[in-house]
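=== How it folds ===
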Amino acid sequence: MSALVSRCSRDLKYLWVSRPYADWLGRIGEEIIGRSILDVIGIEAFEQLRPIFERVLACEQIQYEDAVDFR
């Protein structure tokens, strides 16, 4: 798979990530899986994306594209 894909739980923890997703974050999958999104991407990126996560968890179908700084 060449896409940046992740699967997360309702409590916003990573369950699975594609290799390109882990590479994009500069980590290996084992460093990401089981951890919270906040812990992995940082507070600024998390706060920017939180409204999107909430909409998805409310079963809303959305399309989202933006630049997010994961430093």
